[in-house]
Write a structure and sequence with these properties.
With 339 residues, the chain is α/β, with parallel strands linked by helices. Helices cover 46% and strands 15% of the residues. It has 15 helices and nine strands. The strands form two sheets. It has a seven-stranded mixed β-sheet, sandwiched between helices. Strand 8 and strand 9 form a beta hairpin. The longest helix has 19 residues.
């Protein structure tokens, strides 16, 4: 009986990883040079886009052909480029759910910090601690609006699962570290009964107010300024949202925060947590593990956690019925109830 041959190991996958930095930078360059916006009104040649945008033909041709390889543009036999459904939906700068701004900021706000990763691994200290109020607001003021598309569908699903559209009595929502306010906004859009208290650093609140006005729900928002562990949330809430907050706070502060949220909720109230969940043994999924490195780069104590870890913290705080809610986004939402 012949022994099975070992599959030949090649460097192909490592070479692909070696250029993994390229796609987001290519998309960002296309955003900054108005490639997608120029194609909104129809297919065009490189020469036409060059005249409209002022960008070089050689540069445009290189990134636009690469975007074809990434399935973000298509090209016909006449050499005219056009949008794909994905780029039309998410990369036009004037669309409400655009990710154009996020890709544009990768070069300026994200990659520079990642370039310090090797030194940070040696020292254990992040290049920049964005979880600190002295440095965080400048970064998050740019980030929060650009990641609305990541949270908005999940927030809408949360509101649907809570049956907000059928509510006949007032529903008080606490949106913690609200940022853009999109979690509270999505819930407020589903019922006129919803009133939202948005908490965040004082420097972030003007952004939240501007975005709530943009979505037409500003009249149903009130605000609490301060750090999540120091601000006075008040009490009597029916829903509390933590939209991608725990990974920045880290374990110790997250456990304290969950206890504080428990006290702020009414009996029967629901806490909803959005996170990049990982397996208990930290063997996957890749996106959650990579995001943990992002937290190492950008914070002093940030990390990603498993469902069971967050579940244990919630139960420690007094919550019951800890469960997952499948929703669009990096991971399912984690829900729990105050008994």
């Amino acid at each position: 009986m012949k022994k099975p041959r070992n599959k030949q190991v090649t460097p192909e996958r490592l070479m692909q990883l070696g250029f993994a930095y390229a796609p987001p930078l290519i998309v960002g360059a296309a955003v900054e040079n108005k490639v997608f916006d120029s194609l909104e009104d129809g297919a065009k040649t490189v020469e036409q886009i060059s005249r409209e945008t002022g960008a070089s033909q050689r540069g445009l041709r290189s990134i636009m052909n690469a975007l074809i390889g990434l399935n973000l543009l298509k090209k016909d036999r006449q050499g005219k480029y056009a949008l794909t459904p994905e780029s039309e939906a998410f990369l036009l700068s004037n669309k409400p759910g655009t990710l154009a701004g996020f890709f544009a900021m990768i070069r300026t706000h994200i990659l520079p910090d990642w370039l310090g990763l090797s030194d940070a691994v040696k020292t254990g200290a992040p290049p920049v601690a964005l979880n600190q109020q002295a440095q965080g607001p400048e970064f998050f003021s740019v980030l929060v609006e650009n990641i609305i598309p990541m949270s908005y569908p999940a927030a809408m699903k949360l509101g649907q699962s809570l049956g907000l559209s059928k509510s006949r009595k007032p529903v008080r929502v606490l949106d913690i570290a609200a940022g853009s306010g999109i979690w509270g906004i999505a819930l407020a859009q589903q019922s006129p009964q919803v009133r939202v208290t948005a908490q965040d650093w004082a420097e972030m609140i003007p952004n939240t107010k501007r975005i709530t006005q943009k979505f037409g729900v500003a009249d149903r928002f009130s605000y609490v300024e301060g750090d999540v562990l120091e601000a006075d949330f008040g009490s009597g809430y029916d829903v509390a949202t933590l939209g991608h907050i725990l990974h920045t706070e880290g374990e110790e502060r997250s456990r304290k925060l969950l206890k504080k949220v428990f006290r702020a909720l009414n009996p029967g109230g629901t806490i909803a947590i959005a996170e990049w969940l990982v397996k208990d043994d930290r063997t996957g999924p890749p996106n959650g593990l990579i995001f943990a490195v992002n937290m190492f780069v950008h914070s002093e104590r940030g990390d990603t956690f498993s469902f069971n870890e967050i579940k244990s913290w919630l139960e420690e705080a007094g919550f019951k019925k800890v469960r997952n809610l499948n929703a669009p986004g990096p991971s399912p939402l984690v829900l729990a109830t105050r008994p």
